[in-house]
Amino acid sequence: MNVLVINCGSSSLKYQLINSDTEAVLAKGLCERIGIDGRLVYQLAGGEKEITESPMPTHKEAIQMVLDALVNEKTGAVKSLSEIDAVGHRVVHGGEKFASSVVLTPEVLAQIEECNELAPLHNPANLIGIHACQELMPGVPMVGVFDTAFHQTMPKKAYLYGLPYEYYEKYKVRRYGFHGTSHSFVSKRTIEFLGLDKNNSKVIVAHLGNGASISAVLNGECVDTSMGLTPLEGLVMGTRSGDIDPAIMEYIAKKENLDIDGVMNVLNKKSGVEGLSGVSSDFRDLEDAYNEGNQRAIDACEVFAYRVAKYIGSYVAAMNGVDAIAFTAGIGENTQFIREKIVAYLGYLGVTLDKEANKVRGEDKIISTPDSKVTVCVIPTNEELAIARETVALV
Ligand code: ADP
User: Fold this and answer.
1) pTM, to two decimals
2) Top mutation candidate among 185, 282, 288, 358 for ligand 1, by most atoms within 8 Å of CB
3) Which of 35, 62, 287, 360 is deepest in the core (most CB within 10 A)?
């Protein structure tokens, strides 16, 4: 079965065509600058990247270009659109309505629309992508896979904020968590890779990318995660602040003469390791600056690693123990010195790092020593494959 996986943003769209039997990626790429001018990047498996500039006033033209590229006589991945059996769509926010993936019916789409308020930058774009695909591929089954779904098993004590209860009742203000597809994929893979008994397992997943979050997975179910109502809460990220004293918002607004949008812009786009270091949000640049002795870059890396270590400690408490800690996403899979810094805080758990094994990049690997009391590993995430698997399971 061939599944087209679509991840639609407000002005961009990432896609992969996956053969679900072999789990091979047949072709992948992205559309950028939708609504501005338009640029298609297309790559057939084993082929070179092809870039085509072409007007994309809306997502419909973008998806049409993707489909044309996929069936192109010379470089296409399939002969005709009839060889695409299903489409899996990433949907950012499923609120409390969706605890698992669903086949996209008109009723489901209406329910997703009701979640728009909770993710105003993401959900409307996801819906536009879904509608465009439905128009261009009538009759092909479509599935929605939610970033929030995996975290719906969190108990009330983990998802309620210490706010007036009526805000939860009236406005659905609670913690939802994000990156759920990745936390689900990586926690399952960790259990499988380490041969743990799922029904008796305690796993912590650290998804450290530009956006970063961490989750506590008890017996295969999420019991806590660091992101909240929005993806701003929790860890210090590339440009996002993560947890702060909420009173800072008023204080900075007055000092810098900012309104609420201005403050939110600072917390989302000008904070995190970029704001701290003044160097970059990218850990490759930060590592260079760190090695050159740039003090602000050093501080940024220390703050980043310390926050991750504190969350790991709190999740050990939440689960009354831990069997395995998995690092994933861009930083988690690639950045040795950050993993080393985080693991250095975990001596109290009996964790010891195997420095040689920690030289790994982007492959499943145990990086703790054989006598370490808790196993630490690198497990690459693959959200597109997870979406394809969910899609196949439903159609
Ligand atoms: P997102 O999907 O949230 O944009 P990623 O998971 O791609 O984020 O992670 C991006 C981060 O991962 C970058 O900031 C970069 O610091 C880090 N990263 C990615 N690839 C590498 C690499 N090869 N070496 C070191 N760091 C990397």
Assistant:
1) 0.95
2) 282
3) 62
Q: Which of 89, 25, 31 is nearest to 64 (CA)?
A: 31
Dihedral (C-alpha) 92, 94, 96, 101: value to the nearest 10 degrees? -110
CA of 329 to the centre of ligand 1 (A): 7
Residue 154 CA to residue 71 CA, distance in Å, equals 43
d(CA 17, CA 4): 4
Phi and psi torsions of 142, nearest 5° = -125, 140
What percent of the chain shows pLDDT beyond 70? 100
How high is the pLDDT of residue 142?
97
Does residue 120 register a pLDDT over 90?
no
Q: Which residues contact 212 (CB under 8 A, 6 or more apart)?
A: 206, 234, 235, 236, 237, 238, 242, 308, 329, 331
pLDDT at 94: 96
| Pocket lined around ligand 1, Cβ cut-off 6 Å | 209-211, 238, 281-284, 329-331, 334-335
Question: What 3-state DSSP class applies to 143?
Answer: strand
Number of H helices and E strands in the chain, helices first, is 14, 14
pLDDT of res. 9 = 85
CA atoms within 13 A on the CB side of 354: 17
Is 100:142 a contact under the CB 8 Å cutoff? no
Q: Is the pLDDT of residue 183 over 90?
A: yes
Q: How far apart are CA 344 and CA 309, in angstroms?
A: 9
Q: Is 100 exposed, middle or buried (0-12, 13-18, 19+ CB in 10 A)?
A: middle
Q: Whats the size of the chain, residue-wise?
A: 395
pLDDT classification of 240: cutoffs 50, 70, 90: very high
Mean pLDDT of 387-393: 97
Output the six-digit token pair for 355.
């420095």
* Res 10 pLDDT > 90: no
Measure the CA–CA gap between 177 and 146, rounded to whole angstroms.
11
**Residues annotated catalytic, as ranges:** 147
Which of ligand 1's atoms lies nearest the C-alpha of 238?
14
